Structure formats: structure tokens, C-alpha cells
Amino acid sequence: MYVPSDWPADRFVPAPGGLHRLHLIEYEGGLRLCEDETGLLVSPTDRRLQRAGLYVTNVRGVKYYPEAARRADLSPGRPLRLVPEPANPHDPFAVAVHPNYGKEAIGYVNKRKARHWSRAIASGASLTAVSLRGTGPGENCEAVAVLAAAHEVVAHLMSPRPLDLPRPVYLR
Questions:
Q1: pTM above 0.70, yes or no
Q2: Three-class DSSP category at 128
Q3: Residue 72 sits in which domain range?
Q4: CATH number of the domain where residue 61 is located
């Protein structure tokens, strides 16, 4: 059901001037990347995604910000903001995750990934972030996942998957 890990390392890198051959689809109450050519799902932990400029992670620490998370609309597909915190006393590469409209963090990018995300943002990369998993406002939220990439990439990934592509495997 998932793209095999032994397929080429550049599997998700688009051809020069081309678009990613992926789209976000609804899956088990959230959004998941689906490969256009095969209809296979892409694991959010697939290391090839970062090579293609796609950053995916579970947000850490949501349990420490329950009120902010309850107020926020973290529904799948909702925009989020990534805010680097170079003065963070626990991690100079910390990247806080905020609802698009809010001032309060709802958690942080996984520490292992934050160093790369922070450097990408500091180097001028303009990352647009969306929720892949979360809850609506007024609901308790225990888990949030986020995808970040260039704005035009996120717009493409969120666009409707063309009908002439193979159906996602889990629907066959």
C-alpha cells in the first residue's frame, strides 16, 4: 500500500520545471501523500521527501499547549505558521508551530528535524505549512502532523488529484 523504500532515492524529485508527482488525499481522518503514477501512499517518514523539498513531521509537545491547541483550527488542510526560535533555551534550532492566525504555539517541529527546517527557513526558503492531522476549534487535540514546502508546491499537492490517474491503492 506504500511506495517501497528500495525505489530510487530521487523518486519524488520533480523533473526540472515540472511538478511533484504527488497529491494529498483524504485518508483515515487526515491527509496523506499519494503518488500519482501508482496510487501508492507515501509514508510520512519516507526520507526521500526531504530531498524533494517536502518536510513532514508530527508536532511535538501539543500536550503542553492544550488550551492553544483547543482554540486553534488544526483540521487537515488548514494553514499553519512555522516560527524559528533561535533564542530558545532548550534548542537554538527550535521551530514553533502556530495556527496561521494565532500568536500561541501549539507545539514544535520534531527536534531531530528542526535543525534542517530551521536552516532552510534561515537560508530564505519560504515554507508554507498545512496540517495533515489535527482537530477543529473547540476540540481536544492530542496529535498534529504538518507538511511544509514552497507555496506553489503545497498548492499543487492540495489541488484535486486528476481523475485519469490510478485510484489510490487503499480504495481498490
A1: yes
A2: strand
A3: 22-171
A4: 3.30.70.2330
